[in-house]
UniProtKB/TrEMBL annotation:
Gene3D superfamilies according to UniProt: Severin
ADF-H domain residues: 4-152
Family according to the record: Belongs to the actin-binding proteins ADF family. GMF subfamily.
Described purpose of this protein according to its UniProt entry: This protein causes differentiation of brain cells, stimulation of neural regeneration, and inhibition of proliferation of tumor cells.
GO biological process, one term: negative regulation of Arp2/3 complex-mediated actin nucleation
Entry protein name: Glia maturation factor
Key words of the record: Acetylation, Growth factor, Phosphoprotein
Lineage: Eukaryota, Metazoa, Chordata, Craniata, Vertebrata
Highest taxon in the source lineage: Eukaryota
Length: 155
């Protein structure tokens, strides 16, 4: 018997936070990092970051969460949803602030987690009304150069 694709709802307070984030007036880079609360089957806020570059953001991502068992520790790979407001300087001098949805999906995550995040990604993108959707498999790939290259396809 195969497992069905689990789609989690988006927490109401997060929906409101994403709406306000979309219309923010600040001109710095900012991020909302989200995770899935497995027990509640909800996408919830994990962390908010202000004034953060793409390179700083990758250092904040919880790709590898430490877990402790007995006398040793190990790492549990974790997927993450990010909505990132990025100050984009165009070649012609214009400035825009695109909202980017970044799905951090490290190789080696548990199949149950992969299904839950994959099933919930589209619902979250639709709820937040985002069009610039990117996926990274390794957080080291999240650089300013990578983001500018991805955004270049939209301009």
């Amino acid at each position: 018997m195969s497992e069905s694709l689990v789609v989690c709802d988006v927490a109401e307070d997060l929906v409101e936070k994403l709406r306000k984030f979309r219309f923010r007036k600040e001109t710095n880079n900012a991020a909302i990092i989200m995770k899935i609360d497995k027990d509640k089957r909800l996408v919830v806020l994990d962390e908010e970051l202000e004034g953060i570059s793409p390179d700083e953001l990758k250092d904040e991502l919880p790709e590898r969460q430490p877990r402790y068992s007995g006398n040793f520790s190990f790492f549990n790979l974790r997927k993450t949803f990010i909505v990132y407001s990025y100050k984009y300087q165009h070649d012609d001098g214009r400035v825009s602030y695109p909202l980017c949805f970044i799905f951090s999906s490290p190789v080696g995550c548990k199949p149950e987690q992969q299904m839950m995040y994959a099933g919930s990604k589209n619902k979250l993108v639709q709820t937040a009304e985002l069009t610039k959707v990117f996926e990274i498999r390794n957080t080291e790939d999240l650089t300013e150069e990578w983001l500018r290259e991805k955004l270049g396809f939209f301009h």
